[in-house]
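for the record, two folds in this file. i put them one after another cuz i was lazy. first one right below, seq on top, structure tokens after. the second one comes after a little note so u can tell where it starts
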Amino acid sequence: MHAVVGILVALCLAGLVPTPADAALEVTIDTSGGSQTFSDADLDGIVDFNVILGGVLDASGRAKETTEGVNRKITLAPTPPFSDAIFRNISAGPETYTVTVRSNTLAGALGPPLGWDLFYRAAVGDDVDFVVNVPSHFVEALANVGTIPLGILVANPINSITPFQFEDHGVDAVATTNDAWLVWTFTLDPNDEMRVPFDGGFDGESIQVNVFNHSQKCSDKMNNGARKIGDRAQKSDAKCVKTSTGLATLCVDAPGELKTLKKQDKLIDDFSAHCDPVPAWGVNSFSCCYGGGTNDGDICADSSTCGGGICSQGGCIAEVAEAGINELTHDLYGPAVAVGPEKLKRKCQNVVSKAVGRVYTEHWKVFRLCKRDNFNLIGNDTDLRAVCLEPEPDPDFKLQKREAKLADTVQQKCLGKAVTGLGAVFPGECAASSDATIAGCFSNRAACRFCRAVNYADAIVPPTDCDLFDDNSANASCPP
């Protein structure tokens, strides 16, 4: 561990490093000529500073914090409209400076396991003699009032005017925190300056620390990835219906649709980056074939058994999200996806296919937000079912609105255009429904397919009873 980290931790434990009395965002700049602390008095998550300290440092910039989903982020960045934050040595000799950014105190603890990201992007300049010397500079990510070192980026000395960028990521298996700390220490020769660029909206483009519950982030990434896969797959199937006359079955069932595969690959990448270790609940840890092979969806040990597909952890989630849409399309049309030659009938089928698919993806969205926002209430699959699936909460009525939109689509684009006898137009699982009730049947099919998919994607044991989930009735409408 770097010596400065050890000193900082020791001071914190001894109670010698002040902590924010009002739990607000703070930035402290320490120099040989003294130090100064700037606080977020209006609690807007922003602290601007423009100060000359002890005759040795001219500093201007902004510290910011935000909570984005499962991430707590703090960053050093420029104060608009300036393009860079500036830290300039205005003394006659070399000087060492430390800039410490402390987030406010979170209402709930993050971790364990505690995940973290550390970004160090800046540039060195000198507008006087254009000669620079930065013998040392490093950035640290810390947690729990600065007592837990998470990561450190120690950069090489710099002897030329140049930008640079470094980053690191990791997981602490046992750490818990209610805050995030960023500590930046650097030494400059006279007239040299550090220039910190715009942060890109907390996108890791400046100097930034993120902390998050690692299990929560993995789970959130997987559920959001499944939603995106389902959304892309439903657009693909709807396009098959739109562009076909006669049978669209081959188009609907074609493996490896490129845009869907791209979303699946992104989920696989996210699994690799954010799911080690795999959470104890809420994520399917098995490897499955995906990507268009003959054995897509099968549990696998390696790609040799995938019939041209890819075997990977995360593949079970990627494949079941896409398969849910394929099965839903066949729920509408039956084994053969028959598209009417009449323009109005084909239009009805196309827009209904889209609307039903969007109900499916809305289930994923509502479920994902429920898990994210209630993570501290969930410790196992039983809790997950109780909090987010039995029944599925819809606090903002987004799912209800999506189902109402589907009903409006059926009324306006089908029945309103004299396309009637919809059981024959959609001769699948809803063929026996009347024109007045068929939209409800479509919504139930979307719920069924989501329920079965999420049971597998989240490895829920015992699984949610999808026969009750889809229509609140034990009527064998959604068998396991």
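(here's the note) second protein begins now
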Amino acid sequence: METNFAGKTAIVTGAGQGIGYEICKQLLARGATVYLNDIDELLALHAADSLKDYGGQCIPVPGDSSDHMFIERTVDEIVRQTGHLDIAIANAGITLFGEFLTYPAESLFKVLQLNLAGTFFLAQHAARQMKEQPQGGKILFLSSVTGNQAHKNLVAYGMSKGGIQMLAKSLVAELSPFKITVNTVAPGATATERTKDDNAYENTWSKITPLGRAANPQDIAHAALFLVSDAASHITGQTLIVDGGWTSVSPPPY
């Protein structure tokens, strides 16, 4: 996909590695200015430095994207520096496994605070800026196949990801008059830094994914870039599942 993002400003949360990092890389390679967020300051700084030769400008913004005050300050600073915010991608998320009957309140609140509240407030603060821009803007959420298909020991996570997809649908009614689109990418099993040393992970998912392999970050980033590009200007409120066909047949990974 040869999409030009020259002159566009974007923020991507949770982008120190994995899918978020790859989205930043591809936006930069197509000319965007990208604000790269991660809660791990050293990871954010290293990631931005490693992307400095990819075309556009990459600015690290370390901080907790589940903190709505941090998100508000960050969006305000982006607008102060660039004058606009064209793309906001809520990628940050946390997965905490556990059986439903014994799932601790602390884990539930952590999952909801980052996955749902963090996504909600990035969209809110980004949209407040985008509604003032003649061109509007594009907001993208990262969900999961667990928001569409039950997965054992991921009840809280799946609930949060299903909520993210409903948030995208709900915001169509609120934000379409301002030329703001809101969509979601729902990845399936994806091989990232967290799974690269786990041979069982890739072997298992390769066997039960119809296309014969787990996704890689590039697969997810390609879908994300499409939905925040001008090519998707008439698409909003949708969830694009990128899972190699797994949700069509849904064999469990255990």
